[in-house]
Fold ABC transporter ATP-binding protein.
Amino acid sequence: APVIEFRQVGLTYPGPPPVEALRPCDLVIEPGEFVSIVGPSGSGKSTFLNIAGLLDQPTTGTYLLDGIDTTTLKDSDVTSVRGRRIGFVFQSFHLLPHRSALENVMLAMTYNGVPRAERAERAREALACVGLGHRVAAMPSTLSGGERQRCAIARALVARPSLLLCDEPTGNLDTANTATVLRLLETLHDGGMTVLVITHEPEVAARGSRTVAIRDGVLSEQVMR
Ligand code: ADP
Ligand code: ADP
Protein backbone atom coordinates (compact mmCIF):
# COMPACT_ATOMS: atom_id res chain seq x y z
CA ALA A 1 0.00 0.00 0.00
CA PRO A 2 1.11 3.62 -0.41
CA VAL A 3 2.53 5.17 2.76
CA ILE A 4 0.18 8.14 2.35
CA GLU A 5 -3.07 8.17 0.42
CA PHE A 6 -5.29 11.23 0.68
CA ARG A 7 -8.73 10.85 -0.87
CA GLN A 8 -10.34 14.27 -1.07
CA VAL A 9 -8.79 15.19 2.26
CA GLY A 10 -9.57 18.71 3.41
CA LEU A 11 -9.69 20.76 6.59
CA THR A 12 -11.81 23.78 7.39
CA TYR A 13 -11.21 25.50 10.73
CA PRO A 14 -14.66 26.19 12.13
CA GLY A 15 -14.05 29.84 12.99
CA PRO A 16 -16.03 32.09 12.89
CA PRO A 17 -15.24 32.89 10.24
CA PRO A 18 -14.50 29.43 8.85
CA VAL A 19 -11.09 29.10 7.19
CA GLU A 20 -10.68 26.52 4.42
CA ALA A 21 -7.02 25.85 5.27
CA LEU A 22 -6.72 22.76 3.06
CA ARG A 23 -9.06 22.31 0.09
CA PRO A 24 -10.08 18.71 -0.56
CA CYS A 25 -7.14 17.08 -2.32
CA ASP A 26 -5.83 13.71 -3.50
CA LEU A 27 -2.22 12.72 -2.86
CA VAL A 28 -0.39 9.40 -3.03
CA ILE A 29 3.11 8.90 -1.64
CA GLU A 30 4.64 5.49 -2.28
CA PRO A 31 7.17 3.73 -0.03
CA GLY A 32 10.69 5.01 -0.59
CA GLU A 33 9.72 8.38 -2.08
CA PHE A 34 11.38 11.64 -0.98
CA VAL A 35 8.75 14.35 -1.38
CA SER A 36 9.12 18.01 -0.57
CA ILE A 37 6.15 20.21 0.29
CA VAL A 38 6.61 23.90 -0.40
CA GLY A 39 4.48 27.00 -0.03
CA PRO A 40 4.48 30.50 1.40
CA SER A 41 3.57 31.31 4.99
CA GLY A 42 -0.13 30.82 5.65
CA SER A 43 -0.59 28.54 2.65
CA GLY A 44 -1.59 25.47 4.67
CA LYS A 45 1.71 23.63 5.21
CA SER A 46 1.20 23.16 8.96
CA THR A 47 -2.38 22.08 8.38
CA PHE A 48 -1.13 19.49 5.89
CA LEU A 49 1.62 18.34 8.29
CA ASN A 50 -0.79 18.02 11.18
CA ILE A 51 -3.12 15.85 9.10
CA ALA A 52 -0.34 13.72 7.57
CA GLY A 53 1.21 13.30 11.04
CA LEU A 54 -2.10 12.30 12.65
CA LEU A 55 -1.99 15.32 14.95
CA ASP A 56 -5.28 16.61 13.47
CA GLN A 57 -8.19 14.88 11.77
CA PRO A 58 -9.32 16.25 8.40
CA THR A 59 -12.85 17.62 8.30
CA THR A 60 -13.52 15.91 4.96
CA GLY A 61 -12.14 12.95 3.05
CA THR A 62 -10.26 9.77 3.90
CA TYR A 63 -6.61 9.45 4.91
CA LEU A 64 -5.01 6.01 4.55
CA LEU A 65 -1.59 5.60 6.22
CA ASP A 66 0.12 2.33 5.21
CA GLY A 67 -3.34 1.25 4.03
CA ILE A 68 -4.94 1.96 7.42
CA ASP A 69 -8.00 4.19 7.30
CA THR A 70 -6.97 6.67 9.99
CA THR A 71 -10.20 8.64 9.79
CA THR A 72 -12.18 5.85 11.48
CA LEU A 73 -9.67 5.08 14.28
CA LYS A 74 -10.32 5.68 17.99
CA ASP A 75 -8.09 8.36 19.56
CA SER A 76 -6.03 5.75 21.42
CA ASP A 77 -5.41 3.86 18.17
CA VAL A 78 -4.45 7.10 16.41
CA THR A 79 -1.80 7.64 19.09
CA SER A 80 -0.34 4.17 18.69
CA VAL A 81 -0.41 4.26 14.87
CA ARG A 82 1.36 7.65 15.01
CA GLY A 83 3.96 6.41 17.51
CA ARG A 84 4.80 3.30 15.51
CA ARG A 85 4.60 4.56 11.95
CA ILE A 86 5.65 8.21 11.93
CA GLY A 87 8.93 9.79 12.96
CA PHE A 88 8.79 13.58 13.44
CA VAL A 89 11.64 16.01 12.90
CA PHE A 90 10.99 19.65 13.84
CA GLN A 91 12.77 22.91 13.13
CA SER A 92 13.29 23.52 16.85
CA PHE A 93 14.56 19.95 17.62
CA HIS A 94 12.27 19.45 20.68
CA LEU A 95 14.91 17.63 22.72
CA LEU A 96 14.36 17.40 26.48
CA PRO A 97 17.10 19.63 27.95
CA HIS A 98 17.80 17.63 31.12
CA ARG A 99 18.11 14.26 29.41
CA SER A 100 21.15 12.91 27.58
CA ALA A 101 21.13 12.24 23.86
CA LEU A 102 20.67 8.53 24.62
CA GLU A 103 17.73 9.14 26.99
CA ASN A 104 16.08 11.50 24.51
CA VAL A 105 16.19 8.80 21.86
CA MET A 106 15.10 6.03 24.28
CA LEU A 107 12.03 8.03 25.31
CA ALA A 108 10.65 7.71 21.79
CA MET A 109 10.06 4.00 22.48
CA THR A 110 8.46 4.34 25.91
CA TYR A 111 5.01 3.64 24.55
CA ASN A 112 5.98 0.80 22.26
CA GLY A 113 6.42 -1.84 24.95
CA VAL A 114 10.11 -2.33 24.19
CA PRO A 115 12.11 -3.46 27.29
CA ARG A 116 14.58 -0.92 28.67
CA ALA A 117 17.76 -2.82 27.77
CA GLU A 118 16.60 -3.20 24.19
CA ARG A 119 15.57 0.46 24.06
CA ALA A 120 19.10 1.47 25.12
CA GLU A 121 20.64 -0.82 22.52
CA ARG A 122 18.41 0.47 19.73
CA ALA A 123 18.98 4.09 20.81
CA ARG A 124 22.76 3.55 20.62
CA GLU A 125 22.37 2.08 17.14
CA ALA A 126 20.20 5.00 15.99
CA LEU A 127 22.70 7.54 17.36
CA ALA A 128 25.56 5.69 15.68
CA CYS A 129 23.59 5.71 12.45
CA VAL A 130 23.40 9.55 12.48
CA GLY A 131 27.10 9.86 13.39
CA LEU A 132 26.60 10.55 17.10
CA GLY A 133 27.90 7.25 18.46
CA HIS A 134 30.53 9.12 20.46
CA ARG A 135 28.02 11.61 21.94
CA VAL A 136 25.43 9.30 23.52
CA ALA A 137 26.00 10.68 27.04
CA ALA A 138 26.01 14.34 25.95
CA MET A 139 23.36 16.75 27.18
CA PRO A 140 21.59 18.67 24.39
CA SER A 141 23.06 22.01 25.55
CA THR A 142 26.55 20.69 24.76
CA LEU A 143 25.59 19.60 21.24
CA SER A 144 25.88 21.87 18.21
CA GLY A 145 22.75 22.73 16.23
CA GLY A 146 23.58 20.12 13.63
CA GLU A 147 24.22 17.50 16.31
CA ARG A 148 20.92 18.36 18.02
CA GLN A 149 19.05 17.85 14.78
CA ARG A 150 20.87 14.57 14.13
CA CYS A 151 19.91 13.46 17.65
CA ALA A 152 16.30 14.40 16.87
CA ILE A 153 16.51 12.37 13.65
CA ALA A 154 17.84 9.39 15.63
CA ARG A 155 14.85 9.80 17.96
CA ALA A 156 12.52 9.91 14.96
CA LEU A 157 14.05 6.73 13.49
CA VAL A 158 14.39 4.56 16.54
CA ALA A 159 10.83 3.23 16.52
CA ARG A 160 11.44 2.18 12.87
CA PRO A 161 8.67 4.30 11.36
CA SER A 162 7.48 3.91 7.79
CA LEU A 163 7.43 7.70 7.29
CA LEU A 164 9.86 10.42 8.32
CA LEU A 165 7.92 13.69 8.50
CA CYS A 166 10.21 16.72 8.65
CA ASP A 167 8.93 20.26 9.33
CA GLU A 168 11.52 22.84 8.28
CA PRO A 169 14.30 20.48 9.42
CA THR A 170 17.08 22.90 8.49
CA GLY A 171 15.32 26.13 9.50
CA ASN A 172 17.54 26.66 12.54
CA LEU A 173 20.79 25.43 10.98
CA ASP A 174 23.72 27.18 9.31
CA THR A 175 24.91 26.21 5.83
CA ALA A 176 27.33 23.50 6.95
CA ASN A 177 24.87 21.83 9.30
CA THR A 178 22.11 22.13 6.70
CA ALA A 179 24.33 20.22 4.28
CA THR A 180 25.03 17.55 6.91
CA VAL A 181 21.35 17.06 7.74
CA LEU A 182 20.37 16.96 4.06
CA ARG A 183 23.04 14.34 3.38
CA LEU A 184 21.67 12.31 6.27
CA LEU A 185 18.11 12.53 4.89
CA GLU A 186 19.44 11.42 1.49
CA THR A 187 21.26 8.48 3.07
CA LEU A 188 18.06 7.43 4.84
CA HIS A 189 16.17 7.77 1.57
CA ASP A 190 18.80 5.67 -0.22
CA GLY A 191 18.21 3.05 2.48
CA GLY A 192 14.51 2.94 1.55
CA MET A 193 12.98 5.38 4.05
CA THR A 194 9.97 7.41 2.90
CA VAL A 195 10.81 11.05 3.58
CA LEU A 196 8.43 14.01 3.52
CA VAL A 197 10.02 17.43 4.03
CA ILE A 198 8.07 20.62 4.51
CA THR A 199 10.25 23.59 3.69
CA HIS A 200 10.32 27.06 2.22
CA GLU A 201 14.00 26.74 1.32
CA PRO A 202 14.34 25.99 -2.42
CA GLU A 203 17.69 24.21 -1.98
CA VAL A 204 16.09 21.86 0.53
CA ALA A 205 13.02 21.31 -1.65
CA ALA A 206 15.31 20.45 -4.58
CA ARG A 207 16.45 17.30 -2.76
CA GLY A 208 13.02 15.76 -3.14
CA SER A 209 12.40 13.45 -6.07
CA ARG A 210 9.17 15.38 -6.42
CA THR A 211 7.74 18.59 -5.07
CA VAL A 212 4.18 19.28 -4.05
CA ALA A 213 3.22 22.95 -3.75
CA ILE A 214 0.52 24.39 -1.51
CA ARG A 215 -0.91 27.82 -2.15
CA ASP A 216 -4.01 29.23 -0.48
CA GLY A 217 -4.85 25.75 0.74
CA VAL A 218 -4.68 24.25 -2.75
CA LEU A 219 -2.29 21.37 -3.26
CA SER A 220 -0.65 20.88 -6.65
CA GLU A 221 2.11 18.75 -8.12
CA GLN A 222 4.93 21.08 -9.11
CA VAL A 223 7.96 19.17 -10.36
CA MET A 224 8.81 15.60 -11.25
CA ARG A 225 12.51 14.75 -11.33
P1 ADP B 1 1.46 27.53 6.94
O1 ADP B 1 1.92 26.42 7.81
O2 ADP B 1 1.71 27.32 5.47
O3 ADP B 1 1.98 28.86 7.40
P2 ADP B 1 -1.16 27.06 8.16
O4 ADP B 1 -1.54 25.67 7.84
O5 ADP B 1 -0.61 27.33 9.52
O6 ADP B 1 -0.14 27.61 7.03
O7 ADP B 1 -2.42 28.00 7.96
C1 ADP B 1 -3.28 27.94 6.82
C2 ADP B 1 -4.44 28.91 7.00
O8 ADP B 1 -5.25 28.46 8.08
C3 ADP B 1 -3.99 30.31 7.35
O9 ADP B 1 -4.92 31.19 6.74
C4 ADP B 1 -4.13 30.36 8.85
O10 ADP B 1 -4.37 31.66 9.29
C5 ADP B 1 -5.34 29.46 9.10
N1 ADP B 1 -5.32 28.78 10.41
C6 ADP B 1 -4.31 28.01 10.90
N2 ADP B 1 -4.66 27.50 12.10
C7 ADP B 1 -5.90 27.95 12.38
C8 ADP B 1 -6.84 27.76 13.47
N3 ADP B 1 -6.54 27.00 14.51
N4 ADP B 1 -8.03 28.39 13.38
C9 ADP B 1 -8.35 29.15 12.32
N5 ADP B 1 -7.54 29.36 11.28
C10 ADP B 1 -6.33 28.76 11.28
P1 ADP C 1 8.74 23.99 14.15
O1 ADP C 1 9.82 24.15 15.13
O2 ADP C 1 9.10 23.22 12.92
O3 ADP C 1 7.99 25.26 13.84
P2 ADP C 1 6.69 23.35 15.98
O4 ADP C 1 7.38 23.37 17.29
O5 ADP C 1 5.90 24.55 15.59
O6 ADP C 1 7.72 23.00 14.84
O7 ADP C 1 5.75 22.08 15.92
C1 ADP C 1 5.00 21.80 14.75
C2 ADP C 1 3.72 21.08 15.13
O8 ADP C 1 4.00 19.81 15.72
C3 ADP C 1 2.88 21.81 16.14
O9 ADP C 1 1.53 21.64 15.78
C4 ADP C 1 3.18 21.13 17.47
O10 ADP C 1 2.06 21.15 18.31
C5 ADP C 1 3.46 19.71 17.05
N1 ADP C 1 4.50 19.06 17.88
C6 ADP C 1 5.54 19.65 18.47
N2 ADP C 1 6.30 18.75 19.13
C7 ADP C 1 5.74 17.54 18.94
C8 ADP C 1 6.09 16.19 19.33
N3 ADP C 1 7.16 15.92 20.06
N4 ADP C 1 5.28 15.18 18.94
C9 ADP C 1 4.20 15.44 18.20
N5 ADP C 1 3.83 16.69 17.80
C10 ADP C 1 4.58 17.72 18.15
User: Anything to note?
Assistant: DSSP finds seven helices and ten strands in the chain. Helices lie at 45-52, 75-85, 101-107, 116-129, 145-157, 175-190, 202-205. Residues 50, 55, 88, 90-92, 94, 167-168 surround adenosine-5'-diphosphate (ligand 2) (CB under 6 Å). The longest strand covers residues 19-29.
